[in-house]
Amino acid sequence: MLLQDRNQFLTKINNEGKVRRSTESETLGKARVMNFEDLEKARAERVVKEAAKEAKKAAKEAEEGAKEVKKLATAQVEHEIAPQPWRAPVSLNRSEAGSRGLGVLLLFD
User: Integer distance in angstroms from the first to the last C-alpha of the chain?
Assistant: First the structure.
């Protein structure tokens, strides 16, 4: 019975340690003694700062997406508007066309 109580006590302590080690720590300010009001103020400032950072990141991603859409639209319009390059027909004489003397028509870009 004594051994079982000891094991339960050690398990309880170990579980508390696991929770403490797995919890991510947050730096709320300088290394100084802070009262509860200072901690709450620091947490609120941190939330505002992180929200601003996320908003800036979202705006940047939206801007990059808009640039990509504009680039694709411009490329598509240029592709539709741009004339096809002129192709000059070139024929080879009989000696270049092969042993049968076939006329070959080549198109070069």
Answer: 94
